[in-house]
Amino acid sequence: LDPERDTPQILDAYVKAFDPSFVALYGTLEETQATAKEFDVFFEKVPAGDTYTISHPSTSYVYDSRGQLRMGLSVSLSAQEFTEYLLTVMQVC
Questions:
Q1: Residue 59 carries which DSSP code?
Q2: pTM for the full model?
């Protein structure tokens, strides 16, 4: 969400730290804003002294094999709840 600081290389290293199979997406500020709007995701630059941070939700989006959004999962879910929701989507799809 911060194409002013994040490069494709930085994003790739970041997501690979979670799982080597993850793929990072990069776009211009305009592309990032348009994509965020399509996902109904709010983000903003927040000043922090002589630098800034990016405020954004921490929802995980789950898509089926046809690219249809099936659910958004909050970080407030327990591991058990998260797993149950994912298993339900896998069974339905």
A1: P
A2: 0.68
